[in-house]
Amino acid sequence: MFDLKGKTALVTGSTQGIGFEIARTLAAHGARVFVHGARDMAKCKSASEKIAGSTPVTADLCAPDCAEVLFAKTGEVDILVLNASIQYKKAWDEYTAEEFDSQIGCNLRASYLLMKKYAEGMKKRGFGRIVTLGSCNQYNQHPELSLYAATKAAQYKLVKNIAPALAPFGVTVNNIAPGAIATPRNAEIYEDGERRAAVEEKIPAGRFGTPTDIAPAVLLLCSEEGAYITGSEIVIDGGLSLK
């Protein structure tokens, strides 16, 4: 099961955290993986060295030409995992214009442009897997993540609208919505015992998730075994969104 031999995958934002674990998991099941970072090739190479057979690539997903730049480096892929995102924690009326533009650009515009660019080849080959990484904040209210949450909700709406258009060509499009995951982005909270306990009290499962809680679901959606799943979402949050 879950044999990805002969498939090529691009995982954006895969130098650390959830993206790295997804890239590692896909490679472990036979895929040739592109490990992506925004600008730091040294960091990208360091991550790639830990994933056998992977290739490091960089591209700034905030740039309007990001899809063209990245495609020129990777060529066609069978699996596109859109994990990269930018997040600023501020009150809704404190974002600067630059912070607004970078979150919209990376989290939403780049998702659209990359799906559009890579889907054409997937359609011609009759196989494709596109997985976006959303957030439980699509549904929960967070006083410092209003704009980030809006970009993730909009990204999921793209998934719902694009999935039926690509389904006749053997291409699936799905979303994963993680909850509170122990990653570098959440290190400040996770490593503070008091703040960590306050968050875990809200999670029915009683703990932060880990990247290894997320990657297996992505593997399913990227495999032949996930061929009949499209336009769907898997929420992986230990029950956080249920409260």
Structural class: alpha/beta
Largest sheet: 7 strands, parallel
Q: Got a strand count? A: 7
Radius of gyration: 17 Å
**CA distance, first residue to last residue:** 35 Å
In CATH, the topology is named Rossmann fold
Separate helix tally: 8
> Topology as H/E string?
EHEHEHEHEHEHHHE
- Overall helicity: 40-55%
Q: Unreliable segments (pLDDT under 50, ≥5 consecutive)?
A: none
CATH architectural designation: 3-Layer(aba) Sandwich
Describe this structure in words.
With 243 residues, this protein is α/β, with parallel strands linked by helices. It has one domain (8-183, 211-237): NAD(P)-binding Rossmann-like Domain (Rossmann fold, 3-Layer(aba) Sandwich), CATH 3.40.50. The chain has 8 helices and 7 strands; from the N terminus they run E-H-E-H-E-H-E-H-E-H-E-H-H-H-E. It has helices at residues 17-28, 41-48, 66-74, 97-125, 146-166, 187-190, 193-200, 211-222; strands at 8-11, 32-37, 55-58, 79-82, 128-133, 171-178, 233-236. Helix 2 (41-48) links the parallel strand 2 (32-37) and strand 3 (55-58). The protein starts with 7 loop residues before the first strand and ends in a 7-residue tail after the last strand. The relative contact order is 0.15.
Describe the protein's topology.
Elements: E1 8-11, H1 17-28, E2 32-37, H2 41-48, E3 55-58, H3 66-74, E4 79-82, H4 97-125, E5 128-133, H5 146-166, E6 171-178, H6 187-190, H7 193-200, H8 211-222, E7 233-236
Parallel strand pairs: 1-2, 1-4, 2-3, 4-5, 5-6, 6-7
Helix pairs in contact: 1-8, 3-4, 4-5
